[in-house]
Specification:
Distance between the termini: 37 Å
Number of domains: 1
Number of strands: 12
Keywords: Heme, Iron, Metal-binding, Monooxygenase, Oxidoreductase
InterPro entries: Cyt_P450 (IPR001128), Cyt_P450_B (IPR002397), Cyt_P450_CS (IPR017972), Cyt_P450_sf (IPR036396)
Oligomer: single chain
Protein name: Cytochrome P450
Largest sheet: 5 strands, mixed
Strand content: 5-15%
Number of helices: 18
Helix content: 40-55%
Mean pLDDT: 94
Pfam families: p450
Bound molecules: protoporphyrin IX containing FE
Radius of gyration: 21 Å
Family: Belongs to the cytochrome P450 family.
Structural class: alpha+beta
Length: 420
């Protein structure tokens, strides 16, 4: 394995990445992707992918892509131009391609402007006490499990639950639907993988039907009983944008409620479980943070840098261009590797050291026009959770390494067993 810090020349062998990708998907790679990111970075800044396109491993090159106007997200028009256009026709992929994250200007600009800053200071201040109360309830449950069994699963008891309660209460979704939403979200996500198999796409298609039924019904219910809430505001706004075309407004309202909900769930849950794992596996770290609560936001950011909940994201070149010395033809797809970028030693020295006071840089929330809309909410959830958890369970520690879902794009901790 090449040491951290050694950036070798660019490989032209399209199969060179295959062993690293296999390792990334393996149990070992999911448990510790850091060596895989190093291997990929050692192959070059811009590494050819077997199916055409490139993986991008360096911080600056990834940043340039995310922020550059000449890089676009793979939308319907791009998919239709592909020689493998059939690959993109399954219902789950098509559903995701209509969402904000797969739209380019001018449609993307229009929808983003309409949403504005969803979680501005005032909104977060109003949400804070409710999230804090939910954190306390979930920690009561964790406590009960610990008393009963001497061990509890942080991921399922707390990590998975806080994000759905947060976004669910913000949108006014009744609590009894939360288990169903979590369930179809975990199944739908296969369609967003890099190379989903046919059977994975079938699972996603079924989940998509359930997701569509749920959110369509949810919007219809709110239409029937509008109030002074976020969704009622969106209904008024989009009805005014599409006068006389209720179906177009409803489509937009479904896309927004569905996507914002599912975008907030696994990502935030992974952040929470990662942060608890990274802090409690070294008791001195958790102890230090408990004594220095003013650094809790730094700890959250270091967890985001160290192990980003999303492994990669894709863009395509709007025109012929050159990236880190590599000529890239128009329409070529590039995969931004967030973890490799965050561990680029040229941006974050000693990148594999988890250092709460590092004040490092990361691309975990993306960048540019598509920069994550939920960053401040995710950070708030993590801050409130860690603050209370460290106060309440000073000796909390893992009893085993976490287990992970076998994914290439969305990382997910399925279990994190803890004790006191
Ligand atoms: C730790 C938690 C989270 C992580 C790591 C994360 C990460 C990301 C990333 C990487 C992107 C794509 C950025 C790009 O393409 O440049 C994104 C987009 C997005 N995220 Fe998040 N996210 C998180 C939480 C949330 C939450 C809580 C919400 C909403 C409540 C949310 C809503 C969105 C939306 C709507 C987009 C699409 C923005 C666009 O394409 O214009 N995310 N997120």
């Amino acid at each position: 394995m090449t040491a951290v810090g050694v950036i070798r020349g660019i490989t032209t062998d399209r199969r060179a990445v295959i062993p690293s990708l296999r390792r990334l998907r393996s149990e070992e790679g999911q448990a510790n992707p850091l060596p895989v990111w190093d291997e990929l970075r050692a192959l070059g800044e811009v590494v050819p992918a077997p199916w055409g396109g490139y993986f991008v491993t360096g911080f600056d090159a990834c940043n340039q892509i995310l922020r550059g106007r000449n890089w676009l997200v793979p939308d319907f028009a791009w998919q239709e131009r592909r020689p493998d256009a059939a690959r993109w026709q399954d219902p789950a992929t098509r559903e995701m391609t209509r969402t904000l994250s797969r739209l380019n200007p001018p449609t993307h600009t229009f929808q983003r402007r309409a949403l504005g800053n969803l979680f501005d200071r005032g909104t977060l201040e109003a949400m804070g006490p409710g999230i804090d109360a939910q954190v306390s309830r979930l920690l009561d449950r964790l406590d009960l499990e610990l008393r009963r069994h001497g061990e509890a699963d942080f991921a399922t008891t707390v990590g998975d639950q806080l994000p759905i309660h947060t976004v669910g209460h913000w949108l006014g979704i009744p609590d009894e639907h939360f288990p169903h939403i979590l369930d179809f979200t975990h199944r739908q996500v296969h369609a967003q993988e890099l190379l989903p198999t046919k059977s994975e796409l079938a699972v996603s298609a079924e989940a998509t039907v359930e997701m569509k039924a749920f959110f369509t019904g949810f919007v219809a219910d709110r239409r029937a009983r509008p109030g002074n809430d976020v969704l009622s505001g969106w209904i008024r706004y989009w009805d005014a944008q599409f006068p006389g075309d209720r179906a177009a407004a409803d489509q937009m309202l479904y896309d927004l409620t569905m996507f914002i909900t599912i975008a907030s769930l696994e990502t935030t849950a992974t952040l929470l479980a990662n942060a608890v794992w990274l802090l409690t596996q070294e008791p001195s770290r958790a102890d230090w943070l408990r004594r220095h609560p003013e650094h809790v936001d730094d700890a959250v950011d270091e967890a985001l840098r160290y192990d980003p909940p999303i492994h990669l994201n894709s863009r395509f070149a709007a025109d012929d261009t050159v990236l880190a010395g590599v000529p890239i033809a128009k329409d070529t797809v590039v995969h931004v590797l967030y973890g490799a970028a965050n561990h680029d030693p040229r941006r974050n020295p000693d990148p594999h050291v988890f250092d709460i006071r590092r004040k490092g840089g990361h691309l975990t929330f993306g960048g540019g026009a598509h920069y994550c809309l939920g960053t401040s909410l995710a950070r708030l959830e993590a801050r409130l959770l860690l603050t209370r958890l460290l106060q309440r369970f000073p000796t909390l520690r893992p009893t085993a390494r976490p287990t992970y879902a076998n994914r290439m794009v969305f990382r997910r901790i399925t279990s994190l067993k803890v004790t006191t």
